[in-house]
Each structure stands twice: as C-alpha cells, then as structure tokens.
Design brief:
CATH topology: Purple Acid Phosphatase, chain A, domain 2
CATH class: Alpha Beta
CATH superfamily: Metallo-dependent phosphatases
Distance between the termini: 63 Å
Number of helices: 8
Strand content: 25-35%
GO molecular function: hydrolase activity
Protein name: Ser/Thr phosphatase family protein
InterPro entries: Calcineurin-like_PHP, Metallo-depent_PP-like, Metallophosphoesterase_sf
Order of helices and strands: HEEHEHEHHHEEEHEHEEEEEE
Largest sheet: 6 strands, mixed
Number of strands: 14
Pfam families: Metallophos
Length: 289
C-alpha cells in the first residue's frame, strides 16, 4: 500500500513539473502545404502562424520568441487572434510590443480572436482602448483584417488572405451555434477564383463551414491544443467545454482544403498545458502538379 502511495505521489509530482515546463517553453512545429492552386510557384515560401499568445512572454520583451521568428526568415507572418487578454485589469502592452517587433521582418496580417472582438465591441467593460491598439500596430506596418481581405504575391502566385470575424454566438459554452457558408460570404465576400485563398478563422469548430465557403488553407487556434493532449486521441477539451474536439491541434487534409490548428502560445481560462507544448507553426508552401 505504501509503495502505491509513493508511486502516486511521484506521478503527480512529475505531472506538475511537466505542466510547469510546458507553461514556460514553446516549440516550432513544421508542416508542408501542397496545393494544385500553387502550381507554378517559384521555390518554397514560408509562412509563420502565431495564435493565442494571451500576453504570454518568453524572455524580456519576448526576446526568445522574436529570435525564433527571425531565425526562420519567413516570407509572411499571420496572427490568428487572441494575442491579448480581453479581461478587465489586463493590459495589452505585452502583445502590442511583441507584434511591433514582427512588422520589420516581413508582411504581417492579424485577424481577430474572440478576445480582440469582445474588447472592440465593449471597450468600457474591459477598460482597453482597442482603437489605440489597432492604430499603433497599423502605424508599425501590421495589417488588421476584420471581415476584410488583402492580396499579395508569393513566388509569383496571387494569394488572398481573409480575416473572418466570427459571430460571438459561435464562442458560447456547451452548445454549438449554427453558422453557414453564406454568412461568411456576406461578411467577407466570395473566395477569389484565381487566387490561393487563406482564411484566418479563429474558431476551428466550424472548419466544415470554412471548407464549404471555399478556403484553400484554413488557419485557426482558440482551442489551446485541447489543454491536455492524449496520445492517439488528441486534445481533451475545447474552451466551450466540448470534450475531444475534432480539430484540437495539427494539420488536417480534407478535400481540396488544408486545415491547420495551432495549439497556441499562451493560456487563458484553464491555465494548464500537459503533453501539449505551446508552438509557433511554420508552414512551407509548395506547388503540386
């Protein structure tokens, strides 16, 4: 009996040590994305996708995170939302100062998460001036996409990047609200017929709808990897308290669409990570004949 108790204590201590370690570190997760729509692309292009920072800092002024980004020498940086914390008493300065450091590296596009969205809509409730946040980042060269899109070229291929502001009802707890592809069209228009279409859509729970809309590459976050990752199964729980979400973290190929869900860089609500390291996602885009 004593041996069982001691073993149990050791296991609990090991888990606590691992949780503490994962809360202080991040990794670079690499995926290759191929598409017929990228046929003719010159060389390989690199996109860095960062999501759900939630004001987390890795070193003074996020020096470790900035250094990791610089080493990758990306062609494009995409931010998938929830970089700040939308809660009274929290400043957005850690996120603001970090993102400003990204702007000189390469083009940076930023789509809303539910935290940015609720602060924008109810600034007095949260005590944060989102107009200033957006203005300062814009002056630094960061482009916000709130139900907007922007076009650029990567390796000679036209690429259109969309930032979808997901309705707040779709962030509720315990029950999945409905959303149709037509609603996305009403908000951001139809997909570009002659472009490679990248959709920044914070909540991965509607990946089937994003596919139906016509996104070639869907980039999401929000689920924080499912908090605890179970080998062979995936994430345990989503922020809406749904168990075993389908898209908790990773790369998924479905039809002509690629879905990439970041496990995020920070934590919120449930400040725990277990077998679920924070990450910067590195995407290598290649053409496919």
């Amino acid at each position: 009996m004593t041996a069982i108790i001691i073993t149990g204590i050791i296991i609990v201590l090991c888990i606590l040590v691992e949780i503490r370690r994962e809360m202080r570190t991040f990794q670079m997760t690499r995926y290759t994305v191929r598409s017929r729509r990228l046929a003719g692309m010159k060389g390989t292009k690199k996109i860095l996708f960062l999501s759900d920072l939630h004001n987390q800092t890795y070193g003074a002024q996020n020096s470790r995170l900035v250094s990791a980004v610089l080493r990758e020498d990306p062609d494009l940086i995409l931010l998938g939302g929830d970089m700040l914390v939308g809660k009274r008493g929290h400043s957005y300065e850690p996120a603001l100062q970090f993102i400003k450091q990204l702007a000189p590296i390469c083009p940076v596009f930023y789509a809303d998460g539910n935290h940015e969205q609720r602060v924008k809509k109810r600034p007095q409730e949260y005590g944060l001036d989102m107009d200033r946040y957006v203005q300062e980042l814009g002056e630094a060269g960061v482009r916000f996409l709130s139900n907007e899109s922007a076009c650029m070229e990567l390796g000679g291929i036209p690429v259109r990047i969309y930032g979808l502001e997901i309705p707040e009802r779709c962030y509720g707890h315990f029950k999945r609200a409905s959303m149709e592809a037509e609603e996305i069209t009403q908000n951001i228009g139809r997909r570009g017929p002659d472009c490679y279409n990248i959709l920044l859509a914070h909540n991965p729970g509607y990946a089937d709808v994003y596919r139906a809309w016509g996104a070639d590459l869907i980039l999401s976050g929000h689920y924080h990897g499912g908090i605890v990752r179970i080998p062979g199964i995936g994430g345990l729980v989503a922020p809406g308290f749904f168990l075993f979400p389908k898209y908790s973290g990773g790369k998924y190929e479905e039809g002509d669409s690629t879905i990439v869900v970041s496990r995020g860089l920070g934590m919120h609500t449930l400040p725990v990570r277990l077998f679920n390291p924070a990450e910067v996602v590195v995407l290598k885009l290649k053409g496919q004949q």
